[in-house]
Structure formats: C-alpha cells, structure tokens
Specification:
Blueprint (H helix, E strand, L loop, with lengths): L5 H13 L1 H9 L10 E6 L4 E6 L2 E2 L1 H5 L4 H4 L3 E6 L8 E4 H17 L7 E5 L4 H13 L2 E4 L6 H11 L3 E5 L1 E4 L2 E4 L1 H8 L7 E5 L13 E3 H6 L10 E2 L3 E7 L7 E6 H15 L7 E4 L6 H13 L3 E5 L10 H9 L3 E4 L1 H10 L14 E5 L5 H11 L6 E4 L33 E4 L5 E2 L4 E7 L9 E2 L3 H9 L6 E9 L5 E6 L3 E4 L2 E4 H8 L7 E9 L3 E9 L7 H15 L8 E5 L12 H9 L15 H8 L3
Helix pairs in contact: 1-2, 5-6, 7-8, 10-11, 13-14
The structure holds 5'-O-[(S)-ethoxy(hydroxy)phosphoryl]adenosine (WTA).
Length: 629
C-alpha cells in the first residue's frame, strides 16, 4: 500500500485515474472483509449516489484492532499524556484497546443500542474518547461526536437532529489550568432531548455531578461487569459509520455521513502514504477527537495501520509553550501533525520554549486545518524540523473523510504553503464562477473534484437534498469544496481559503450565519453581520457588526451580552473577536447586505472599498469606517 518513490507515485496516480476500479481493488485487498465486493464502485454526482465496495461486508474495528492481535497484541496503540505536566505516561496496548472497546461495546448493547442506532459522544481528549468511537463501530452503532467546546444548545441540536439514544460523557474535563464541566452541560442539553434513554459518565475530574436514576450510569462500574469479548457486527460497506456535524454557509450545522468500507480503505491508505509511517515509529496528531482529524488521523487511520500514537489531553501552551516539545522529547516522537494556529502561537512565544528539548527524533511534520502562511511554515521547518523534516501540508475537509491534496513525506518535493499534489484517486480541477474548467498552470479558481474517492461524503443526515444542494449543485457533475485555490507553474495546488460564508478560526469551521443568528437572539440587537478578518494567531478572527437602535446600555455592556449569548448558543469557540455597534449596515436596494464591503473594513481598508453606488444609503459605509475597531 505504501508508495516509495516519486515515480511510484506518478504510476499509482496514473493508474488511479485510468483504471480507478482495479487501483482501489488492489488497495482494498489489504484489509479483512467478511465478504468481498461484487463491484468496486457505482456512482453519480447528480443525486448524488456513491457506493464503494458494493455489497462487501466488514467491521472496521476488526481491522483496527483484532487483526493486529496475532503479532502486535503487546505493541502500544496509544501513549496517553495527561493535561497536567509531570504525570506518568499511560500505555495502552492493542490488547488493552481490544478489551476496553469490547467491554464498552457490551455496555452499549446492555443499554439496548443496536446496529444503526445513534450514540452521541461528548468527551475530553482521554483514551475513553477513542474507546467510545470504536465501541460504537464494534456493534454497528453510528457515533456522533460533539466537540467539548460546544454549548448545551449545540449538543441538544445535534442529538435531536439524529435522535441519539445514548450519550457517552464525563463529569468534567481538564483543559490547561481550567476545569470544564461536561456532565452538567449534557444535563442542560437533555432537558429537551426525548430520544436519549441512557447516559454513561466517565469520572475524570471527580467533581460533583447529578446522576439521574435509571438514566445515568457510571462508566467504571458498568464496564467492569462486562466481558472482554464482543463479536463485531458485520456491516455492509455502505452502512453509516459515523455522523459529524460541520458548519456551512447557511442554516444549522449539517451531519456529514461517512460509511464503513470506503472510509476504512482511504483513511489507512492516506495515513500510510502521506506520513510514510514505518513500523515502530511514534506518531502524534494533536487534534481533538471532536473534529474530523481526530476521527481519521488519531483513531481510524493510525489504528488501521497498526501504528503507535500519542494521545494528548492538554493544550500546547500549558503549563508553558514548551509542552509539545517536551512531550516530543520525552516520547521520542517521529511524526508530528498539528494545526497552523498552534504553530503561530508557539512561534509567538519565542524560541526559549523550544531550545531546552531534544527534537532529533522528529522525521516528518504535518499541518492541517487552514492555510499555513509562509512565515509559520519557515519557523516550523527551521526550528522544529531543524531543516531536516519534510512538512506535509495536508488539505482536506470533514466531507472528504481523508487527506486529498498533500505531499507524500520525503517523496513529493515540498514548497512553503503549498499542499502540492493530489493523492492517487483524487482528481481536482479549478473552475470559474460559471463552472467552466480553468485549464493549464499558473491559474486560480474554485476547487472542485470530478471523480469520487472512497471516503467522500455520502449524505447529510436526514436531509439528502441538502447534501446535493451544498456540494453537488453549484457546479453540476462536480463535488464543490467551498475553497479557493491556485495552481502554480509546477501544477502544485495552494489552497487560498474559503470562498463561501464560512470562517476558519484557529482551524475551526464557523458559519457566519450561525453566529449572526445567535447574536440576533440578543434583545437589543436588531440585525447583525459577521465576517472574517486576518488574525495573526488564529488565521481568521470573527468580526461582528451589530445594529443596536436605542439602548440604555454602554457599548461595553452590549458587547459582554453578545459574547455571553454566542457562548451559550454555539459555544466559546464562536465568540466574536471584535464587535462594532453600528446604526446601519451597507445594503443594496434589494436589501442584501454587501459583505464584501464589511470584509474590507474589517481587514483595515478605509478608502478602497470598491463600488458602493448600488447601496441604498452610502453614508452608512463612512460611519462604519469611522467607528472601526
Ligand atoms: C481548510 C479539516 C488550507 C479549508 C481537515 C477546508 C485547509 C476546511 C487545509 C475544512 C490546508 C483544511 N490548507 N486550508 N492544509 N486543511 N483547510 O472540515 O478551507 O474542519 O475547506 O476539516 O479547512 O475544515 P474541516
């Protein structure tokens, strides 16, 4: 499965385009299937309807765990580093993983969870989060992980959208110097969730929590009672594996659905090839299991490959900005995968936090989640990789399930801030706003993909039409990513950022419409408009313009209120960085807000604001410029 040279990459790529079915059949032979496929692929991008490994049967956990037990039972699957510095590293072998996952799967069964039922997971970055995903997959339940930074309201919306039967959570979470309540947030969410029958609570912080009799159960007590064996449920290749909610341009977050067979094949294949993982190496992805990176490249990809990973509960800057490097030194990490926002914040903290540590074990560095600016790329390359480690800048999305455009470590020549070339099986193209393909090199356009890869989104949960509209209708016959992209003279791809109303804040996707609708819940605000602006550390910050007609309150009081309402409705991650109180917004005569102008003002532009002649009231613009924060 592993490509070794650039020539091999070119051959594999060629074959994957000319004969995709035989290409993927060959890769899929490396997995355990209860029954092989009748056909590799059936697809159309119109409905859309995409089926990989048609009629094949499998269980992904058997491939992640059981098949390694013959020769790797005592190999380490995870080294767990706690939030608090100085605690001993915990070791979880593949055998331990098997036993823990089976016990938890048996608890779920006892709770009445069956194949196809949905289970919500709201947990900190502790081994139990990984056990939880796999326990669901073991019995064919569909997991829906909600990131720990989301509010009760967000949890509630997600649980209700997919009617989850069970919630797996903890009492609280440690995050840096803070202790965050988890169970009480779940309790609040569950006040309006009729589908939830049982809640399993892992004791992490030992804070006082409320246990509802008959509904809430203690994780340790329940798992202890169970057997270490649980027969894996046999799944169809196209049975859903999980739902993960993500933000888009409009409306509430949608539940992106991934299925078993294709996701398994692609996450493992991309993991092995992008990072060039070698047996015995130690790999560390710093993402949270609450995001797609934590699904594909902490849980499924590395485990499918039988890798040894680091699982980290804490933050890059706690107790100080040397924490990542301290752990890298301690555990002799070989492959390190993080987000540009973390790199920029550690760069800002200075080299004194890097110098004390021996980073010579590092062989490959990775970046994910947002465009990496050249300065951060150079710092990472020089001071962390010591100019010896290739940086794999991996471009992909929740919807793509796995990495689509990235260098293969030590194989593809890298170029700062370029995701470089597509993986075998991935056929990108650039189109103009009318959907016409832009050919040749040295061009820029909207990034689309013209052929399915195995881990492509299958549907949005409960609303297939929304999936079609969002990804397959803008440019008929193509999957539209929502990203802008350049292709340079070498044919290398550079992602320039979202071209829709999605902001990427510290690598987290936030829909402007969602933030606006939260702000509009604020009593004094009659209307708001939210845009992104360049932010030194976060990549993009959130800038909110709010119309407040008459109010007794000061602007500071209003801002506080707005921040607290956004925190309550979405979660602290969506809090605006800047809130400007205005009397009006720039609107066209038909009432449409001209975001282009608001974006320019937020970026610091004062004069060159483009054509304002179609505005209903051009004076509004000057007022906004004058009041800019
Ligand atoms: C952005 C995260 C530039 C992009 C895996 C995409 C990137 C969105 C990169 C998906 C990268 C991700 N370079 N931009 N290497 N990786 N993005 O769904 O805008 O949380 O559309 O998936 O992040 O974010 P998501």
């Amino acid at each position: 499965m592993q490509i070794k040279t650039f020539e091999e990459y070119q051959q594999a790529y060629d074959l994957s385009v000319k004969q995709p079915e035989s290409f993927w059949a060959q890769i899929a032979e490396n997995f355990n299937w209860n029954k092989k496929w009748d056909k590799i692929l059936n697809w159309n991008f119109t409905d859309p309807n995409i089926n990989w490994f048609v009629n094949a049967k499998l269980n992904i956990t058997e491939n992640c765990i059981d098949r390694h037990l013959t020769d790797k039972a005592n190999n380490v699957a995870f080294y767990f580093e706690e939030n608090e510095d100085g605690k001993p590293t915990q070791t979880i072998t593949y055998q331990d993983l098997h036993d823990e996952v089976c016990k938890l799967a048996n608890v779920l069964k006892e709770f009445g969870v069956k194949k196809g039922d949905r289970v919500c997971i709201y947990l900190p970055m502790i081994p139990q989060a990984v056990f939880a995903l796999l326990a669901c997959a073991r019995i064919g339940a569909i997991h829906s992980v909600v990131f720990g930074g989301f509010s009760a309201q967000s949890i509630q919306d997600r649980i209700n959208d997919s009617c989850c039967k069970v919630v797996l959570t903890s009492d609280g979470a440690y995050r840096g110097s803070k202790q965050i309540p988890m169970k009480s947030t779940v309790d609040e969410a569950l006040q309006n969730c009729t589908s939830v029958e049982k809640v399993l609570v892992y004791k992490r912080t030992n804070e006082k929590i409320n246990l509802v009799q008959g509904r809430d159960f203690d994780w340790e007590t329940e798992t202890k009672k169970q057997s270490k064996f649980c027969t894996p449920e046999i799944m169809d290749s196209e049975d859903p594996l999980f739902i993960l909610y993500t933000s888009g341009s409009t409306g509430k977050p949608k539940g992106v659905v991934h299925t078993c067979g294709g996701y398994m094949v692609f996450t493992c294949y991309s993991f092995l090839n992008v990072f060039q993982y070698q047996p015995g190496q130690i790999y560390w992805c710093t993402a949270d299991v609450g995001w797609i990176t934590g699904h594909s490249y902490i849980t499924y990809g590395p485990l499918l490959a039988g890798a040894t990973s680091v699982l980290f509960e804490g933050l890059p800057n706690y107790p100080d900005a040397g924490r990542f490097w301290k752990i890298t030194d301690k555990l002799k990490v070989n492959i390190f995968y993080t987000a540009p926002t973390a790199i920029r914040s550690l760069e800002a903290a200075g080299l004194d936090f890097v110098k004390p540590y021996d980073l010579s074990s590092l062989k490959v560095l990775g970046s994910v989640g947002e465009p990496i600016n050249e300065e951060a790329w150079q710092w990472y390359h020089k001071h962390i990789g010591k100019e010896k480690c290739p940086i794999v800048d991996t471009w992909w999305q929740t919807e793509t399930g796995g990495i689509l455009i990235s260098p293969l470590a030590n194989i593809t020549k890298t170029k700062p801030s370029y995701a470089t070339l597509p993986l075998p099986g991935v056929q990108p193209l650039l189109v103009d706003d009318k959907g016409k393909e832009i050919t040749g090199n040295g061009v820029e356009g909207n990034l689309c993909i013209k052929f399915p890869w195995p881990s492509i989104i299958r549907t949005t949960y409960g609303d297939h039409e929304r999936c079609r509209q969002t990804y397959f209708a803008t440019y008929p016959g193509l999957y539209f990513t929502g990203d802008g992209c350049k292709r340079d003279e070498d044919g290398y791809y550079r992602i320039t950022g979202r071209v829709d109303d999605v902001i990427n804040v510290s690598g987290h996707r936030i829909g402007t419409a969602e933030v606006e609708s939260a702000i509009n819940q604020c009593h004094d605000v009659v209307e708001s408009a939210v845009v992104g602006y360049p932010h030194d550390i976060k990549g993009q910050g959130i800038y909110a313009y709010c119309i407040v007609p008459k109010s007794e309150k000061t602007h500071d009081e209003l801002r506080k209120e707005i921040l607290s309402i956004v925190s309550k409705i979405i979660g602290p991650i969506a809090k605006p960085d800047k809130i400007q109180i205005v009397n009006g917004l720039p609107k066209t005569r038909s009432g449409k807000i001209m975001r282009r102008i608001l974006r320019k003002v937020a970026e610091g532009e004062t004069t060159n604001l483009g054509d304002t002649s179609t505005l209903l009231d051009p004076a509004v613009v000057q007022e906004i410029v004058n009041g800019k924060l």
